[in-house]
């Protein structure tokens, strides 16, 4: 689905921070068939991912001075007023880690975290709305928050974004859906003790035509399959994957696609 604008609170962009920019770029190009365009920056490396010429997201090389930061994917949510959004986040107990920064004539960004430490980013668009495609094969289709105190997270996110939270009937797990004007845009699940020492985080899902084939292909390209292909009743079949640098994401074959 081609997109021309994002409403407040919608996931609008994704960004990969990697310790091996060239290897990660080659991996995602091979896995999803994305093209990439290298962008000149004063220091380091930065590329835009695109599909058929439409921007989907970006990636950059983590500086050597920040070697303690693991490779990771990050989601950006659209906001209409960056200053007001940051004030709301701070008032609700969140933190600002970077920004806000003006990105040339493209827009304004900031990196923040919720009170439980899950990091995400904000984007106030000027001339670049964010991803031009979502909800189709090989593009972002869902974002999911894993946390330890879902009721507290519900209060936080429904304060800073125009979200509501609706329980979802999922077997063996406490799950709910984030909604904007009745449209589900993401989910939330509780971190279970048996998962081990996992910090609250946002996980990105990319739609694929065949979950099993993608998991097998990712593994052949050097990735680790963290959760093997598994069925979600009435939804689809998904797998969680960590690329060779450790950045984690999910792929899903949706029943309706």
UniProtKB/TrEMBL annotation:
<dbReference type="InterPro" id="IPR041581">
    <property type="entry name" value="Glyoxalase_6"/>
</dbReference>
<dbReference type="Pfam" id="PF00903">
    <property type="entry name" value="Glyoxalase"/>
</dbReference>
<dbReference type="InterPro" id="IPR052164">
    <property type="entry name" value="Anthracycline_SecMetBiosynth"/>
</dbReference>
<dbReference type="InterPro" id="IPR029068">
    <property type="entry name" value="Glyas_Bleomycin-R_OHBP_Dase"/>
</dbReference>
<dbReference type="InterPro" id="IPR004360">
    <property type="entry name" value="Glyas_Fos-R_dOase_dom"/>
</dbReference>
<dbReference type="Pfam" id="PF18029">
    <property type="entry name" value="Glyoxalase_6"/>
</dbReference>
<dbReference type="InterPro" id="IPR037523">
    <property type="entry name" value="VOC_core"/>
</dbReference>
<protein>
    <submittedName>
        <fullName>VOC family protein</fullName>
    </submittedName>
</protein>
<feature type="domain" description="VOC">
    <location>
        <begin position="139"/>
        <end position="254"/>
    </location>
</feature>
<feature type="domain" description="VOC">
    <location>
        <begin position="10"/>
        <end position="125"/>
    </location>
</feature>
């Amino acid at each position: 689905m081609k997109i021309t604008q994002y409403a407040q609170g919608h996931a609008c962009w994704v960004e990969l921070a990697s310790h091996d920019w060239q290897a990660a770029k080659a991996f995602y190009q091979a896995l999803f068939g994305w093209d990439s365009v290298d962008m000149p920056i004063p220091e380091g490396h930065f590329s835009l991912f695109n599909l058929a010429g439409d921007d989907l997201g970006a990636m950059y090389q983590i500086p050597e001075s920040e070697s303690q930061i693991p490779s990771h994917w990050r989601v950006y949510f659209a906001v209409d007023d960056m200053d007001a959004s940051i004030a709301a986040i701070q008032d609700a107990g969140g933190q600002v880690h970077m920004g806000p920064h003006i990105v040339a004539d493209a827009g304004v960004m900031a990196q923040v975290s919720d009170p439980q430490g899950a990091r995400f980013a904000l984007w106030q668009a000027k001339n670049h709305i964010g991803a031009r495609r979502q909800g189709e094969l090989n593009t972002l289709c869902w974002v999911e928050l894993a946390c330890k105190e879902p009721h507290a997270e519900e209060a936080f996110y429904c304060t800073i974004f125009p979200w509501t939270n609706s329980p979802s009937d999922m077997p063996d797990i406490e799950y709910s859906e984030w909604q904007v004007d009745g449209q589900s845009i993401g989910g939330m699940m509780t971190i279970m003790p048996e998962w081990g020492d996992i910090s609250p985080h946002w996980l990105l899902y990319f739609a694929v035509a065949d979950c099993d084939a993608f998991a097998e292909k990712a593994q052949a390209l050097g990735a680790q399959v963290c959760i093997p292909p598994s069925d979600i009743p009435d939804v689809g079949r998904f797998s969680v994957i960590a690329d060779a640098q450790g950045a984690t994401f999910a792929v899903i074959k949706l029943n309706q696609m």
